[in-house]
Amino acid sequence: MARAAMKSRRRFGGALEPLTYVRAFYDDRERQELARLDSCEVIESPMATEVSYPRAAALAHVAELLDELMPDREASDAVFRLSLAVLQQLRGPVLWMPLTYFELWMTRLMGFLPEFSECVVCGRVLDGHRAFYHALADGLMCLDDKRVASSELSPESRRIAEQMLRSRVSEFAEIEWPKAVCADLRKFLLQILERHIEKKLVTAGMLEKI
Ligand SMILES: [Zn+2]
User: Fold this and answer.
1) From ligand 1's centre to the CA of 163, what distance in Å?
2) 142 C-alpha to center of ligand 1: Å?
């Protein structure tokens, strides 16, 4: 709770805008539901660089995923560092690479990411074979076990995902990355996340239209 933050813009300035990196001073007492926010020093604001509509949608997507996936009052160093690194890559017009990286790593850090290398039904190795996924099922399936109305996850996207799981987001900064790259991977990841939070992500629809 930030007292009078709506009345006096001066007190917190832009520090309470979503995804602003701040040093916060707050008072959190036992038996009180809300902590009291005393002051915030802005370290870095995503609003410092130009906010186009696509970039606003991308930032909103990061914020929505954090809001929906992180339990209240849970401090996670890994999620914090991931978010900072991805936000650094979201300063310019490049969107799809950092968004793919963020969705992939959030899915893994939440413990929802299935094995990419084998069929979840029969256990067959999927390397070198086609792999499929379904909105209502966990994991990847081989050609024989795929359900009706499954989608395919391309070998190229599986390869990039495995690379992303071993690398920092900054290592992909120089790569040309139009929307089509890993579109199937993002769809796969969003289906997993939406299945776990049991609702549709509002920002997924916004991104789809860009
Ligand atoms: Zn199988």
Assistant:
1) 24
2) 4
Rounded Cα gap, residues 58 and 91, in angstroms: 11
Q: Residue 71: its pLDDT value, please?
A: 92
- Flag residues of the chain having pLDDT under 70: 9
From the CA of 133, how far away is ligand 1's center (Å)?
A: 11
> What is the spatial distance between Cα 38 and Cα 184, in angstroms, rounded to a whole number?
44
User: Among residues 105, 132, 96, which one has the least CA distance to residue 116?
Assistant: 132
Q: Which CATH superfamily is domain 51-208 in?
A: Recombination protein O, C-terminal domain (1.20.1440.120)
**CATH 1.20.1440.120 boundaries in the chain:** 51-208
C-alpha to C-alpha distance for 108 and 102, rounded to whole angstroms: 10
User: Could you tell me the distance, in angstroms and rounded to a whole number, from the CA of residue 141 to the centre of ligand 1?
Assistant: 5
Question: 83-126 pLDDT, tens per residue?
Answer: 999 999 999 889 999 999 999 999 999 999 999 999 999 999 99
Distance between CA atoms of residues 183 and 156, nearest Å: 11
